[in-house]
Amino acid sequence: MIELPETVVAAQQINETISGKRILNVTAAQSPHKFAWYHGDPQKYHELLAGKAIGRAVGIGGHLDIKAEDAVILLNDGINLRYHEEKEERPQKHQLLIEFEDYSALSASVQMYGGICCFKEGKFDNKYYQQAKDRPSPLSDRFDKAYFDGIISAPGAEGLSAKALLATEQRVPGLGNGVLQDILFNAGIHPKRKVKTFSEEDKDKIFGAIKSTLAEMTFQGGRDTERDLFGCTGGYKTRLSKNTVGKLCNVCGGIIKKEAYMGGSIYFCTGCQRL
Asked: What pLDDT digit, counting tens, does each position of 87-123 carry?
């Protein structure tokens, strides 16, 4: 699933690779997918986008926002986005294919689930998109300790688990269940641990881990569990993920475990993150 590090990296790559290219043709919803979500009628995406030039892309939390003059292409969740050169073969199955006048292309394919939204700028009122735009990115200086203290001390927060606090309701834009695992490992906090048990030192560690872990993931080109615009895995080696489950922790020698929790999976070190 693309989260903040991946949206920022993808935006940088789009700005370097396809910004300025003019759209020739758009094909949407060619391959039916039960969990591909579109805004409006995908059959009208060609009419909306054809002839327009790609402008600037930006990662807004877990959303990849690509401008095309007066329109926006917005992608999120389980989207595989790939750039294709003129003679490069396109995927047979896709949920969005944007072809440019120079015969290069951009394809988007949904993994488990994902959102593909094309709309006139200002005509999309999705709550989570608006929250991601309004709230400070954890990569920015505006996301400081005072701001984080406001999140962790908000009414009802003390009854939440660490995972529920950080990875639901987009309290921290772009921080999802994927990046959460290494953040909590670096802070030494179990994902199931309740906020009401946190000491001031714990809160400081979590804040520091959010800032440093997300910055490192982004700087290294995203996580090694995800792929970029060119199909390459990210350079950040995840410490807790599908790639490390069952292995020994390189800090304490404990076992990296995986459990089902809150509709998804959590990973934790049995030694470093005691409940």
From this structure: 999 999 999 999 999 999 999 999 889 999 999 999 9
Distance CA 12, CA 221 (A): 10
Phi, psi angle pair for 12, to nearest 5°: -60, -45
pTM: 0.95
Task: Please name every residue paired with 38 in a beta bridge, in sequence order, or none if there are none.
Answer: 116
41: amino acid identity, one letter:
D
Task: List, in sequence order, every beta strand (DSSP E) within the chain.
Answer: 23-28, 36-38, 57-60, 63-68, 71-84, 96-100, 105-120, 256-261, 264-269
- Would you call 91 helix, strand, or coil by DSSP? coil
In a domain, 120, yes or no: yes
- Classify residue 275: in a domain, yes or no: no
Query: Where residue 23 falls among pLDDT bands split at 50, 70, 90?
Result: very high
Q: Per the domain annotation, does 201 fall within a domain?
A: yes
Kindly state whether residues 203 and 166 are assigned to the same domain: yes
- Per the CB < 8 A criterion, the answer to whether 256 and 247 are in contact is yes
Query: Both 128 and 142 in a single domain?
Result: no
Bridge partners of 58?
65
Gap between the Cα atoms of 26 and 49, Å rounded: 7
| Residues spanned by the domain of 63 | 4-133
Q: What is the pLDDT of residue 191?
A: 98
Residue 25: predicted pLDDT? 98
pLDDT at residue 163, as a whole number: 98
Determine the Cα–Cα distance for residues 102 and 230; give it in Å rounded to an integer: 18
Residue 54 and residue 146 share a domain:
no
Residue 82: half-sphere exposure toward Cβ, Cα within 13 Å: 19
The 10s digit of each residue's pLDDT in 81-91 is 999 999 999 99
The closest alpha carbon to 196, from 223, 227, 160, belongs to 160
Following CA atoms 119, 124, 130, 133 in sequence, which dihedral angle do they give, to the nearest 10 degrees? 30
